[in-house]
């Protein structure tokens, strides 16, 4: 196994794959890392899903509580989703022919996330077979089994990127759901999901304009936020709860019913204000002086303006520090794949509520035998299975 040799040398080239709650496509990114430091950032890309796959994923997500893992549609969507991931791997390898990939970190697609249960779909064995690469996957189960939230998992990557930048400083991801990592003045890493990011706004825009999001905040900029509704929504006990805490994409979906009487522009402005204020009101032990924003929400000027107004400290797009704000979560799963192989923690009591620092992830890899290529699930301690 090449992984062992490369790890003993220190750094490996890890290709991370993330399919986020926005269901818009798969992000892929390459980094060179030993699971602690990041030696180099390679290229990244996003492969959008077809409208058909998006719809099928959304149907799964909407019906996930009633699905069993052997459901025929679930299995079919899982294969289709995995194939798009394999294509993303292939394209990224073509973009970086000099950066031979040692391992893939495959998050999959979350279709359900609630206390005690987290469910990501994606077929790691199929991906490994399609790409001829070892694949680390199933990143959240061990944390949940140990009593953690199972999310967010990106904080240790955020902290590695911040690399001794004096705190208090925050990294804020605004995807379908929003999450933040605070590194305090004395270097503690505190993290949580803060509330909806773009998910409600995407659904609202889709209902009213047929577009998948409020592109460039055009709707919200024409409207006026209804602060009374925002306050009603903010009264939910989740927003008073200190970190760590996490959410499902559909957690605040009933907010759409509460704004149903508003016109398209005022509804978008209200949801934009709601997202910004949930972040600003997240109970934190220290107020960050600087906020570095990643995820698709930073492309929305109406949301960025609302954040600038609501947050203490200064906000910057992630690019201010030379990071790629659209690739960061994918990079994270490359980083976590390497941490998993090295047996390092993926989560901490202050990031997911797990009782002790917890490693996680499972390795699925190829084995070449004299009888031909075959797959076997393995871990670092497993010995290869006997031949056929
Ligand atoms: N130009 C834009 N104007 C407005 N919104 C945008 C723009 N570009 C991207 N977005 C928003 O960003 C979202 C995608 O963000 P991102 O890819 O970070 O989410 P994700 O990774 O799927 O979610 P999560 O981080 O919750 O898993 C889109 O659904 C959209 O709401
Ligand atoms: C269960 C799940 O997939 N959660 C996602 C989601 O999207 C953003 C936020 O909610 C975060 O908690 C998490 O993703 C990132 C990558 C994380 O685990 O840090």
From TrEMBL:
Enzyme class (EC, first level): transferase
Pathway participation: Cell wall biogenesis; peptidoglycan recycling; Amino-sugar metabolism; 1,6-anhydro-N-acetylmuramate degradation
Residues that span the membrane, as ranges: none
InterPro entries given in the database record: Anhydro_N_Ac-Mur_kinase, ATPase_NBD
Reactions listed under catalytic activity: 1,6-anhydro-N-acetyl-beta-muramate + ATP + H2O = N-acetyl-D-muramate 6-phosphate + ADP + H(+)
Keywords attached to this entry: ATP-binding, Carbohydrate metabolism, Kinase, Nucleotide-binding, Transferase
Cited Pfam families: AnmK
Residues the record lists as binding ATP: 20-27
One Gene Ontology term of the molecular function aspect: kinase activity
Enzyme nomenclature, EC number: 2.7.1.170
Role: Catalyzes the specific phosphorylation of 1,6-anhydro-N-acetylmuramic acid (anhMurNAc) with the simultaneous cleavage of the 1,6-anhydro ring, generating MurNAc-6-P. Is required for the utilization of anhMurNAc either imported from the medium or derived from its own cell wall murein, and thus plays a role in cell wall recycling.
Family of this protein: Belongs to the anhydro-N-acetylmuramic acid kinase family.
Protein name, as recorded: Anhydro-N-acetylmuramic acid kinase
Species name: Acetobacter lambici
